[in-house]
Amino acid sequence: MQADQQEYIPLPQASAHIPGSPHRSTPVRWALHGLHIGGQIIRLRTVRVGGRRFTTAVWIEEFLAACDGRDQQPVAMTPARRRRQAEAAVDALASMGVG
Fold it and tell me: Going by C-beta distance under 8 Å and a sequence separation of 6 or more, which residues neighbour residue 32?
């Protein structure tokens, strides 16, 4: 079996593996739409098998860790965001008379 040797959990049943007993539609929403946190969209990882979506306990833990800041991996910037930040830096330097 794949998924880090974890058992697949049907997405509507995944709420039983989440602290606080959220509604069964909550993991579905997290997988499809994600959560917007700090300008990023964090989605619950899933795999689609025969038209149904599944997740694993490991993926749920990774999602929860990312949502509360326990995920320490750097976030890649989009080219547009990188360009906006560079333009803002150039403008700030120009206002100080540098450059």
Answer: 43
Please name the residues in contact with 47: beta carbons below 8 A apart, sequence gap of 6 or more: 3, 8, 53, 54, 55
Three-class secondary structure of residue 81 per DSSP = helix
Q: How far is CA 46 from CA 10, 50, 79, in A?
A: 9, 13, 26
β-sheet with 47-49: strand ranges across? 9-10, 52-55, 47-49
- Read out DSSP for 15-45? GGGSTT---TTHHHHHHHT-EEETTEEE---
pTM attached to this predicted model:
0.64
- State the pLDDT at residue 63: 93
As a whole number, mean pLDDT of residues 45-50 equals: 94
Three-class SS of residue 48? strand
